[in-house]
Specification:
about 210 residues; alpha/beta; Rossmann fold; 6-stranded mixed beta sheet; globular
Length: about 210
Amino acid sequence: MTLIAIRHGATKLNGEKRVRATLDPPMDPVGKQQIAETAQHFKDVPADVIHTSDLQRSIQSGAILRKAMTSKPRVKPNPALRPWDMGHFAGQKVAKVRKQIDHFYEHPDQVPPGSKESYNQFLRRYLPAVMPMIHDSKPHVLVSHNRNMHALEALAAGKGKHVDAQTLLDHPEGNTKPGGVMILDHTYTPKFYNPPASKKEATRDVGLKTPT
């Protein structure tokens, strides 16, 4: 039916514009507020589960969403939903290492220094956990990370058949900000919105009924 992929709220590292990857900082107060605002647009989604990675910023976001949602779905952490292990790039300024990261998009079988997985290995871990959600008859809520959302954008560009590498290079930071949302179904036509947004704007962007 529909995958509602929500990027976790901001952390101190987001504010410093540093690569987060598999580092595990908690959300900061700004991030918690971002997710609280996002949650108001999705509180009536009849989901049974909120899927998260096993990193605390994702789990924390899932807990805030659950509190707002009328269906009270369980929060289910899954290590397969972790972001790409970017090795020595983690913690560095994004602007400083962006071109180096691009090299590993262009050569996706190469493993970054200090990492344990190439980009293709990340995809082989991550996508099998997500694609069944896209094609299920029920709605799914996923709390995701920037590189994971980016991968979904590239998958949408490939209409679900492949991850389009040019999308990764053309839009290196993707289209979702912390607390932002990407809606994806089996047609692989993505919809985006980034809070704060009015309920009217959210309805137009994601095609859901305005909560009452």
